[in-house]
Amino acid sequence: MRHFRSAAGLTLDQLGSDVGVAASQLSLMENGKREPRLSLLSAVAERLGVPVSELLDQTAPSERAALEIEFERVQSSPLYAGLGLPSLRVGKTVSDDMLRAIVGLHRELERRARQAIATPEEARRANTELRALMRTRDNHLPEIEELAQREVNAVGHTTGALTHRSVSRMAERLGFELVYVADLPHSARSVTDFANGRIYLPPASIPGGHGLRSMALQAIAHRLLEHTAPASYADFLQQRVQINYFAASALMPREQSVDFLSKAKDARNIAVEDFRDAFGVTHEAAALRFTNLATAYLGITTHFLRVGGNGSIGKAYENDGLPLPVDVTGSIEGEIVCRNWSARQAFARTNRTTEFYQYTDTPGGTFFESTQTGSTVDDEFSITIGVPFDDAKWFRGRETTRRELSRCPDAACCRRPPSELADHWVGRAWTSAKVHAHIFSPLPSGTFPGVDDRELYEFLETHANPVG
What is the reported pTM? Predict the structure, then answer.
């Protein structure tokens, strides 16, 4: 409004007199502090000789106007407020170059602030808060369930494993082609090129292709959920949760999954391995998906653990009261679980091809747990789904007689060495500990946490303009 009023050579008083409103009210509207009635907006547009659509257009009418709008946003941001600087009014005497410099400085401050918070400490804090939030929601996001089910239905998928073709059709519905390349940026799982309508993915993944389908679905989810560049590490983690949830909900759609699990519950034969095989996904994906649906649709509280060979937690979720180990900040990542829990006992068995069942008595109650072990190039791991004792009746393996007692976090349970061993060996041995290099490394910085902007943009330029 200010732009077109100035172009018409009118003062606030003149325009106010012509449309029958006080100049002070027009000033509030021009500054975005009051929204005009449609009838007044029509009168203003008619007096200024422009269509109403021009006044409602979100695009700034000029570079100067865009700079002024961004400067207003700058001054209302928490970052600017934290600097303790006075608010400024941009008048005609402020040159375009000066305005560009001020806005440019703030853009750089924002960029550096985003990088500064992407530290391991901030990541742990944000992850702890997000885990607590998901616990209050029973690890269930109904709005994403609906979105995924709608997209799956739209490509005609009704039963069994979601095919690569179905995933490609989901991308095509958004105007994207899936392109598999061998030179993705080292820090990126996938890259979406809006300008050319392409989603770039790696050429190979884990056996069965679940990884490729999942990565493609995650990229699709970013578009469906209208994600923008994260403003904080908490935003980044929130987006990761949402895209992972969408991918899981598409690979294991709610309607088909709930039907499958409900029938298994009726037969008192729930097993993660059956759920996994029915939808052609990994054991971990099926276990996590079970936590999304168990409480909301089966009335079962549960817990999930991914534990490394050294007993440290990689991922965990619970809403059934399992006393997870936590540090002083409430974080669980990297904490060591009790040696007597199923998640660690399963490593000791000889036959690792089937699930391992166990009842575990803890300070938080008795739990039935089912654990599957696996390995990567670097380490072995276990995936555990557990439920309170009373819900064991719905699960395969409930007849197991294996039962362990855990008193953790009491150090005398399994962390403190027996006194006879300590007395015998203290001072008589030396060991050189492994150094986990990642604890010394800050997260790579960039527009997106962990992504090298230069490598990303060079990749996009190369594939947008292929040689030969």
Answer: 0.73
